[in-house]
């Protein structure tokens, strides 16, 4: 499930200019370790503390539920939120049970997993496999960011490439899913946190709270206004390995921004850096002149999937993809407006694609707009 680093190394973080809330509005927040990362939720409301606590409890319960569905790393330890210094073993997730049934039998899955697989397959088709929910065997083989991470041999890579065909994911009636080849393994780490952010945002909105900020492992979703009554101001940190300083800022309202980059998780061998964003056609980390890609969209689910796929696709193919999203009809996710894409190049240039309403402010003067 882990696609990006936890809170302290997340690409996106919120910058506020600091001020007190309006007299009737108070801020309530909580922070949890869940879905392999850190989630912080801030809500602004004039409701009593008891109601605010109820909202945050509902949010946490939903996150735990979704973690139990989508976690692809249940053999790893996770953090116990009742004891932040302690570790607990994660129970086998629904996704893991589906992976174990690969090539054996179909499995009836939850509505959430079925829906996310529908969206994932739509994105796989749209991106010609740049986003690939069947990439699990490759992620496991390299294991970057976990114990026993390694640079596999060419033979090891060649052996698993046939297992990465997302077209062998069969969605049947009554929420039945069948992975057609034994050894297939789904990994939804490139979309699940975005989906979870959208789900918990709906919970908060259903309580009548419209001003809030979600940071789920660097997946940022902002709704309404900040404590100053203005749009939330978000900064994106440097996409250069070893640097944490912010490089650009932008205003975010009723939208999400998600970033994928080559600096977040990687290993080095014989002077070569291997990062965690893979090309499932070659079996290797993507090699291009990008450091990172950020997507701003009304849908955090889409922003999550597109941040990975745009990094894989590069500028011209991403430009074409963004245009398709608003010109064609997609039944699962609507596009009220074109997403914006910010591509960070290794020469410190930034390309802004898609929504021309998206404006950014350069903070680090070493960076510049192409």
From TrEMBL:
UniProt cross-references to PROSITE patterns, sorted A to Z: PROKAR_LIPOPROTEIN
Keywords assigned by UniProt, alphabetized: Cell inner membrane, Cell membrane, FAD, Flavoprotein, Lipoprotein, Magnesium, Membrane, Metal-binding, Signal, Transferase
Cited InterPro entries: ApbE (IPR024932), ApbE-like_sf (IPR003374)
GO terms assigned for molecular function: metal ion binding; transferase activity
GO cellular component: plasma membrane
Domain of life (superkingdom): Bacteria
Pfam families: ApbE (PF02424)
Leader sequence segment: 1-23
EC numbers on record: 2.7.1.180
Reactions it catalyzes: L-threonyl-[protein] + FAD = FMN-L-threonyl-[protein] + AMP + H(+)
Keyword Amino-acid biosynthesis: no
Cofactors demanded by this protein: Mg(2+); Mn(2+)
Membrane topology: Lipid-anchor
Annotated Mg(2+) binding sites: 190, 304, 308
Major localisation: membrane
Compartments, as annotated in UniProt: Cell inner membrane
Note describing how the cofactor binds: Magnesium. Can also use manganese.
Family according to the record: Belongs to the ApbE family.
Function description: Flavin transferase that catalyzes the transfer of the FMN moiety of FAD and its covalent binding to the hydroxyl group of a threonine residue in a target flavoprotein.
Protein's name according to its UniProt entry: FAD:protein FMN transferase
């Amino acid at each position: 499930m882990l696609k990006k680093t936890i809170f302290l190394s997340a690409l996106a973080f919120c910058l506020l200019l600091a001020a007190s809330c309006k007299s009737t509005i108070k801020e309530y927040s909580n922070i949890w370790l869940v879905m392999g990362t850190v989630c912080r939720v801030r809500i602004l409301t004039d409701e009593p503390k008891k109601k605010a606590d109820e909202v945050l409890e509902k949010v946490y319960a939903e996150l735990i539920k979704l973690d139990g569905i989508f976690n692809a790393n249940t053999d790893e330890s996770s953090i116990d939120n009742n004891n932040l210094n302690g570790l607990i073993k994660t129970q086998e997730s629904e996704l893991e049970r589906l992976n174990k049934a690969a090539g054996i039998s179909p499995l009836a899955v939850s509505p959430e997993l079925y829906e996310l697989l529908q969206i994932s397959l739509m994105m796989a088709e749209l991106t010609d496999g740049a986003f690939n929910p069947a990439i699990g065997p490759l992620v496991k083989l390299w294991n970057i960011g976990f114990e026993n991470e390694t640079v596999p041999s060419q033979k090891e890579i060649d052996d698993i490439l046939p297992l990465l065909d997302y077209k062998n994911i069969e969605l049947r009636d009554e929420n039945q899913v069948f992975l057609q080849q034994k050894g297939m393994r789904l990994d939804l780490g490139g979309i699940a946190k975005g989906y979870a952010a959208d789900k918990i945002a709906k919970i908060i909105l259903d309580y009548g709270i419209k001003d809030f900020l979600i940071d789920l492992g660097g997946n940022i979703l902002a709704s309404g206004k900040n404590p100053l009554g203005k749009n939330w101001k978000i900064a994106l940190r440097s996409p250069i390995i070893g640097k944490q300083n912010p490089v650009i800022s932008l205003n975010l309202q009723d939208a999400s921004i998600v970033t994928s980059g080559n600096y977040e998780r990687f290993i080095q061998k014989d002077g070569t850096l291997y990062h965690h964003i893979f090309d499932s056609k070659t079996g290797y980390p993507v090699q291009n002149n990008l450091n990172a890609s950020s997507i701003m969209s009304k849908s955090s689910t889409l922003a999550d999937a597109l941040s990975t796929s745009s990094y894989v696709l590069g500028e011209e193919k991403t430009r074409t993809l963004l245009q398709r999203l608003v010109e064609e009809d997609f039944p699962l996710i609507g596009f009220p407006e074109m997403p914006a894409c910010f591509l960070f190049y290794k020469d410190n240039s930034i390309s802004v694609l898609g929504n021309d309403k998206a404006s950014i402010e350069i903070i680090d003067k070493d960076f510049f707009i192409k």
